[in-house]
Amino acid sequence: MESPPPKLDPTPAVDTRYLLGKFNPASHSDFVSVGKPYSDKAGMLLRKETFQAFETMWKAAAKAGVVLKIISATRTFDQQKAIWEGKWTRFEKEAPLPKDRALKILEYSSMPGSSRHHWGTDIDLNDLNNPTFEKGGKYEKVYDWLRLHAREYGFAQPYTAGRSAGYHEEKWHWSYTPLSKPFLEAYKKNLHESDITGFKGAETASEIGIVQHYVLGINAECQQLSTQHHKTSN
Ligand SMILES: [Zn+2]
């Protein structure tokens, strides 16, 4: 069953500082706290629209015996910087060259300023481990349900298997596309590799092509359809 995701009118305006996660979601009027039963962790924040859509999806999943738990929601630039720099230090011996080290971290973690978690539109669900969502895994039913129904509520998986660039597959990461698609378009238009600065290893951003390959290296379902303004010839 496919129905169009909920329409937003109008799309909220966001500036480049917002897209880079350089704002405080806790004091932003468009953000709400998540809380129980949607998350067992304190301090999870999402944009209102994302949370409302998630709440509707959560209830539908619960009826089908599937329990969705948010384990990560909005993260600021500074929070992402702490994650990144922790790994930067940890991987120093394993990957002494800056570019190699950045690529190693980028298998699963974003550079500060380039994370979809900055936007209040993206969530990690249940567990940060692909096999638990696969056949015989603890959350097999969760993933099967999401794959069939998440799009009815506006959610899609940006990091699917089989893409040619970007992060590894993440079966736990879901994005509220009625908001994240226009935010991605704004990012594409206004931000470049040179804007990704202010943390250890940031000098590798341009060489790696962080915007081109990682921010934009996502599943087509999370991108604005480029064909929507064109007529096809057949
Ligand atoms: Zn995530």
Keywords:
four-stranded antiparallel beta sheet, two-stranded antiparallel ribbon, Muramoyl-pentapeptide Carboxypeptidase, domain 2, 8% strand, single chain, alpha+beta, globular, 234 residues, 32% helix, binds zinc ion
Radius of gyration: 18 Å
- Helix vs. strand class: alpha+beta
Number of domains: 1
Kindly report how far apart the N and C termini lie. 27 Å
Residue-averaged pLDDT: 93
* SS element count, helices: 8
List low-pLDDT spans.
227-234
| Largest sheet: spatial strand order | 3-4-6-5
Report the strand count: 6
CATH architecture: 2-Layer Sandwich
> SSE string, helix = H, strand = E?
HEEHEHHEHEEHHH
Portion in beta strands? 5-15%
Small molecules bound: zinc ion
Quote the CATH topology.
Answer: Muramoyl-pentapeptide Carboxypeptidase, domain 2
Structural account:
- This protein is α+β, with helices and mostly antiparallel strands and 234 residues long.
- It has a single domain, classed as Muramoyl-pentapeptide Carboxypeptidase, domain 2, CATH 3.30.1380.
- It contains 8 helices and 6 strands.
- It has helices spanning 16-19, 48-63, 77-90, 98-105, 140-149, 177-190, 205-208, 210-215, and strands at 31-33, 45-47, 70-72, 122-125, 155-156, 173-176.
- The two termini are 27 Å apart.
- The structure holds zinc ion.
